[in-house]
Amino acid sequence: MNIEDIRRICVVGAGNMGHQIALLCALNGFTTSCTDVDPGALRKAEAFADRYLPERVRKGKLDSAAARETRARLRFCAELTDAASDADYVIEAVFESLEVKREVFSRLDRIAPPHAILATNSSYIVSSLIAPATRRPEKVLNLHFFNPALVMKLVEVVQGPHVSEETARVSVDLCHRLGKVPVHLRKEVEGFLLNRIIRAIRKEALWLLEMGVASAEDIDKACVHGAGHPMGPFQLMDLTGIDLSYQMAMERFRTTGDPADLPPPSLVEKFVKGHYGRKTGRGWYTYSKDDSDGQ
Ligand SMILES: NC(=O)c1ccc[n+]([C@@H]2O[C@H](COP(=O)([O-])OP(=O)(O)OC[C@H]3O[C@@H](n4cnc5c(N)ncnc54)[C@H](O)[C@@H]3O)[C@@H](O)[C@H]2O)c1
Fold first, then answer.
1. Among 31, 30, 28, 34, which residue's Cα sits nearest to residue 14?
2. Residue ranges making up the domain that contains 203
3. The whole model's pTM is what?
4. 161 and 31 housed in the same domain
5. Ligand 1 pocket, mutate which of 123, 129, 147, 199 (most atoms under 8 A from CB)
6. Whether pLDDT at 38 is above 70
7. Euclidean distance between CA atoms 93 and 136, whole angstroms
8. Which of 19, 172, 212, 283 has the largest count of CB atoms under 10 Å?
9. pLDDT bracket for residue 160 (50, 70, 90)
C-alpha cells in the first residue's frame, strides 16, 4: 500500500481534536467522513466547518472554489457504519479511555475494509494496548496530532513493535500530504515524545504554584518571555483541557502505581469544579464567550 491508495479518511470522534482533523483532511483533498456518538458534537463540528471555510475565504487564505470543494468532500455521519465502511484510513479521536477505544477499534475492524489503516490520536494510550481488539494489529498505530490540529504542524507517528513498516511509511507520507511535520518514533513509549517534555515542565509549574512561589500568570510569563515558549503551561492546560490533564495523570498513576504520578491537588480542584479551561469558559484563567469558542 502507498499513499496514493489513501483517498478516503474517516475521523471517529468530533470533539476538540476530531472536528479539526476531519476538516484538515478535507482541506488537503481527502474525501472525509466524521462521526460521533453525540449528535450535539457532530452538529458543532459541522457548524465549525461552515464558519471556518467562509472565514478563510474572507481572509484571502483560500479561494472560494477550494472552499466549496473542501465542503463537498466532508460529510458528517451519525453512524460509524456509514462513516467507516469505505475508508482507506481511519483516525480515531474519541475520549481518552482504553475501554472506549478498544470497543471502537473492535467495531472498526469489522466495518472498515481489510486494507484500511486504523490510527489512534490518543495522547497517552499506546496502540499496542488497542491493536489486540482487531485482527489487523500491523495496521494499528498512534498518529498523534497536537491541539489545535488545523494549526499545529507536529504529528508523532509511533511505530510500536506490532506495526508494519508499510503502515508507518504510509502514515508518515499522509502527514506530509496534510501539510504537517511528522516525527517517526521507532519505539513505543508512554507519553511519546513532546508530551513527556511538556509533562516535566507542567509538574514543575504546578509545584511552584502550590508552594506559593508565584502565580499561574507569572509562571506563564516566565516561560513565554524567558524561554520563548508560545504559551505558558497554565495557558496550555486551559487550551487542551484540564479534564484531559487530569485523566492523563490518572491513567499514568494506574499504569505506574506511583503516588508521585497522581494529579496534584490544584489540578484535582479544577477538575472537580468542572473548570476545564477554554471549553468551559474557566480554568486557570477566565474566558469570555468569544474566547471559549475561539478556535
Ligand atoms: N485535547 C487535546 O489537546 C488533544 C491533543 C492530542 C490528542 N488528543 C487525544 O484525542 C482524543 C480526543 O480528545 P479530545 O480532546 O478531542 O476529546 P473530546 O472530549 O473533546 O472529544 C471526544 C469525542 O469523542 C466522542 N465519542 C466518545 N465515544 C465515542 C464513540 N464510541 N464513537 C464515536 N465518538 C465517540 C465524544 O462524544 C466526543 O465528542 C483523546 O484520545 C486525546 O488523548 C487530545
1. 34
2. 194-281
3. 0.85
4. yes
5. 123
6. yes
7. 19
8. 19
9. very high
